[in-house]
Specification:
It is built from 13 helices and 4 strands. Helices cover 65% and strands 5% of the residues. Strand 3 (208-211) and strand 4 (214-217) form a beta hairpin. It is globular, with a radius of gyration of 19 Å. A two-stranded antiparallel ribbon has the order 1-2. Strands 3-4 form a two-stranded antiparallel ribbon. Helix 2 (13-28) crosses helix 7, helix 3 (34-40) crosses helix 4 (45-58) and helix 7 crosses helix 13 (238-254). By secondary structure, the protein is mainly alpha-helical.
């Protein structure tokens, strides 16, 4: 993805969510005016107007004659290509394991061409990511380790980088290789203060833990997030689960 688009999308949580929801709109056909979109990504109308003006200038979004907002076709195609290139970074063994996992979740295997599997996987991935940021999303990780503190789902969307930080913390929990603030700063391109603020917020809420070696998720948070993932995937049709299995099997063969 070109630098100006990538920089804009990662400038703030709201801009990233704006792009995700409109990418999903391109697939679902659901219409978004400014009022509806502002609600979905939890921003004020003035903030949305600023984001929309920037997106129009950059060729990311467009308006129709009814002032409904949509993503441009060019941005949509480039985003999908970037997504595929990102998946290609998965090693062969992990791709095989993912294929087996998706196959095991389906009650029956549906035969699809590789091309159809890729299209369905891309569309579902975009729709799933967009659903996770919407204000009215149905499935949330409602983990409250401490009363009246932020739950895990709210923490994830509280800034532009916590989704990626969540992955780093989960990886640290699984591998036992604790992650340090300096590593978070380098990998996520965030300041020390921003990283510390997110980590300490997670610690205050009871799902991030700290040791002399660094940070990771608590066992309870890791378990809750994995269960949430399983619930989400179980809600998908056999056709979609088969598409995921075929897609990741193809990734493994391409290595």
């Amino acid at each position: 993805m070109q630098t100006s688009w990538r920089s804009w999308c990662f400038h703030s949580r709201a801009r990233r969510d704006f792009a995700l929801v409109l990418l999903a709109q391109r697939i679902s056909g659901e219409e978004y005016n400014q009022k509806k979109l502002a609600f979905e990504i939890s921003v004020t109308r003035n903030t949305l107007k600023q984001i929309l003006t920037e997106a129009l200038d950059l060729g990311i979004a467009e308006l129709d004659e009814n002032n409904c907002i949509s993503i441009t076709e060019h941005f949509f195609e480039i985003y999908k290509l970037s997504y595929i290139n990102e998946w290609r970074l998965i090693d062969s063994e992990s791709a095989c394991l993912l294929s087996e996992a998706f196959d095991s979740l389906s009650t029956r295997t549906i035969t699809l061409s590789v091309e159809d599997a890729i299209d369905k996987t891309l569309e579902l991935s975009i729709l799933s990511r967009a659903e996770s940021v919407k204000q009215d999303r149905k499935l949330k990780v409602e983990l409250h380790s401490r009363p009246k503190e932020m739950n895990l789902s709210s923490w994830v969307i509280s800034n532009t980088f916590n989704r990626d930080l969540l992955l780093l913390l989960m990886s640290a929990s699984i591998s036992g290789d604790m992650i340090k603030i300096s590593q978070i700063m380098r990998r996520l391109n965030v300041s020390r203060n921003s990283a510390k603020q997110s980590l300490f917020s997670g610690m205050d809420s009871g799902f991030v833990k700290k040791s002399a070696l660094g940070f990771c998720f608590t066992d309870e948070a890791l378990s809750a997030y994995i269960v949430w993932h399983e619930e989400v995937f179980k809600s998908y049709s056999d056709e979609l689960l088969s598409a995921f299995a075929i897609f990741h099997s193809q990734l493994a063969r391409d290595k």
